[in-house]
Amino acid sequence: MFWIIVPFFYLPDDLQQTLKRRRTDPARIPHELPRALCAPTHPVFYPFFIISKTLCCHAWNIDTLATFHYDPSIIVFSLIVPSFLMFKGYCIVKIALIANPNSGGKKANQSILQIKEKLKTQKIDSDLFLTQYHTHACEIVKEIKIREYDAVVSMGGDGTNYEVLNGVLKYHGDGDIPPLGIIPLGRGNSFARDLQIITADDGVSALFQSTLKAVDVCSFTQNSEKHYFINLMGLGFVTDAAKTAYRFNWMGDFSYILGVLHRTVQLAFHKIVLDIDGTVIIEKNCFVEFCNSRYTGGDMLIAPDAKIDDGFFDVVILSPLSRISLIATFPKIFKGTHGINPAVRFIKGKSAQIYTEPVKGLLPDGEMFGTTPTEIKIHPGLVRYFS
To answer: 232-381, what's its fold?
Structure first.
């Protein structure tokens, strides 16, 4: 019995999790584990697995191991090959690629095919799903058999990742959630920056390296339904500016700057009742941003002290100010120095309730969806991303 149990604990943590994840379906282990152990990272070990499996089938009574739900050859294999050689990280064999061909001004089509071929050269199998309309990515994730994949990867911008995240958590959140990946092809790609992923090549390299990071997720309510965001969610001036920018989407990155200038001319404030972890703020307000990560709009450092794994969201509050002060403060966001303006405040929290007069639209991860009132909560380490 000692020689049956002990080798399992010498296996790497990620491999132990793989075995535990398949525990309720032991028939899949002999088919999936040879690939997980030996390919694509260390194909040289495949003969060892075949030899150990053959020896076990003849020498051991499999029924004596049925209690453990593990193929006995796995245990012998762990004795033959040192664990630090055969498995150094999360092993990717097959992934679901959810790609938005319209990302980055419809320049993504060629990149999508090139990336799929690059994955193939590393012996990573992938099923490619192309989105055809808004919210399609969420619907695709809802329909896929998620347990067939070692990872679900979004190829697009923050909006594509937002839809994939919601599809995974809404429709597969009760089971084992596979790691998520980002290959940025959009204009902003704000959240990916906190994963040290700036370019599409960075996103592909993160998959090859297979280093996982547990990441916090924020939820917000609409009536009785729960939705999720992972970058940030704003209301007020920022949402109004985004609405204007959407009308000038053909102007690229300049569209948001144009939206800010347009809304500055029509600057208006609203009443807000904001309850952050029991501390209530009642005042006139310009905008509020609930930030899980640091950046917005690509390289705007809206929440300099935010961390994606600290169990808090950072609330950025802008109180009423003059048009001149707003215009003077706006450029400072790119360096994260806008906090020197006394109208700007930063508060960390774990839960919040928001009520406004009049009703204000919400902007989760750059998507115009929902209105106040709403309730926001942080969910520490809810998902894992390749970084």
So the answer is: Tumour Suppressor Smad4 (2.60.200)
